[in-house]
Specification:
This protein is an all-alpha fold and about 180 residues long. The chain is built from ten helices and no strands. The longest helix is centred in the last third of the chain and has 17 residues. The chain is elongated, with a radius of gyration of 18 Å.
Length: about 180
């Protein structure tokens, strides 16, 4: 019974996050830390992508940057792959490292984003990688090679990608 009630509460929160009434949205965001679940992350990110008011942005960031639930990683990784959310990738990456989530299994995706996206995304990826442990040697080696190629092709981010490559190399040599 409580699982059904929780599901209904989450569904109501998702509906209110999509409301055109800013007061409803704000009310829902204030309840998210107490009533929310990982299901609410994607709707919150879509709301952030719509460039809401500064009050809503602040509430979104307070919730999204404090996701301590390991189940939050899956929707955040899905958001990184979602073309509709590409414009807020740096925010999604910030959510991952601010929340201390372990994205080590997603190193390939993270390095691809660092190489293909803008400078801020590359900075966020560097922060995540630098603060994460337990990468497999194969993942580290393959991504070092990927970065070697990217450094030669991207003069604008060469120094940053070089720093990222060094972090991966240090992790490979330490283990």
């Amino acid at each position: 019974m409580s699982e059904t009630n929780n599901s209904k509460r989450v569904q109501k929160l998702i509906e209110e996050l999509g409301s055109r009434d800013e007061r409803k949205v704000i009310g829902a965001l204030k309840r998210v830390p107490h009533e929310g679940s990982a299901e609410i992350i994607i709707p919150m990110l879509h709301l952030l992508a719509k460039d809401p008011s500064s009050e809503i942005q602040l509430l979104l960031q307070n919730s999204l940057y404090n996701l301590k639930d390991p189940n939050a990683l899956e929707p955040l990784i899905a958001a990184l792959r979602d073309k509709q959310l590409k414009g807020i990738r740096s925010h999604v990456l910030t959510c991952i490292w601010q929340s201390g989530l372990d994205a080590s299994a997603e190193l390939d995706l993270l390095i691809n984003i660092a190489v293909e996206d803008d400078f801020m995304c590359a900075v966020e990826v560097l922060t995540i990688v630098d603060n994460t442990e337990h990468y497999s040697d194969d993942l580290l080696s393959g991504n070092i090679k990927k970065l070697d190629k990217a450094i030669n092709e991207q003069a604008d981010k060469a120094a940053l990608l070089g720093n990222l490559r060094q972090v991966l190399l240090d992790k490979l040599l330490d283990e």
